[in-house]
């Protein structure tokens, strides 16, 4: 795996992990009963983005480490997966 491929895979894993972690621990303005004029009720009261970005980086690093070990040391790839759909191209 080249450096550029590793960075691309890590970026994709990080981005997907970010969307999984964003809703964790969110308290909306409606939950707290403190709605700021001009905002929606579902707006978060405190986003805590720094903590979420750090948690996203940690979780994405663990997932990437598992991916790296599986591909580099064990040689697993997409071709290692069994074929689920039968091949109808052969007559």
List keywords for this structure.
single chain; 91 residues; mainly alpha; 3 helices; 53% helix; elongated
Radius of gyration, taken over Cα atoms and rounded to an integer in Å = 21 Å
Work out the number of β strands: 0
Specify the overall morphology. Answer: elongated
Structural category is mainly alpha
Question: Percent of residues in beta strands?
Answer: under 5%
- Mean pLDDT across every amino acid position: 90
Largest sheet features: none
Question: What would you say this structure looks like, in words?
Answer:
The protein has 91 residues and is mainly α. It has helices at residues 3-21, 29-32, 49-73. The model has no long low-confidence stretch (mean pLDDT 90).
Task: Give a short summary of the structure.
The protein has helices at 3-21, 29-32, 49-73. By secondary structure, it is mainly α. Helix 1 (3-21) crosses helix 3.
Question: How is the topology of this model organized?
Answer:
Blueprint: H1 3-21, H2 29-32, H3 49-73
Helix pairs in contact: 1-3
């Amino acid at each position: 795996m080249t450096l550029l491929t590793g960075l691309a895979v890590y970026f994709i894993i990080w981005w997907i992990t970010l969307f999984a972690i964003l809703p964790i621990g969110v308290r909306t303005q409606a939950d707290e009963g403190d709605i700021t004029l001009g905002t929606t009720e579902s707006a978060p009261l405190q986003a805590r983005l720094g903590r979420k970005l750090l948690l996203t980086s940690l979780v994405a690093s663990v997932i990437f480490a598992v991916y790296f070990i599986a591909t580099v040391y064990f040689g697993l790839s997409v071709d290692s997966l069994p074929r689920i759909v039968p091949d109808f191209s052969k007559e």
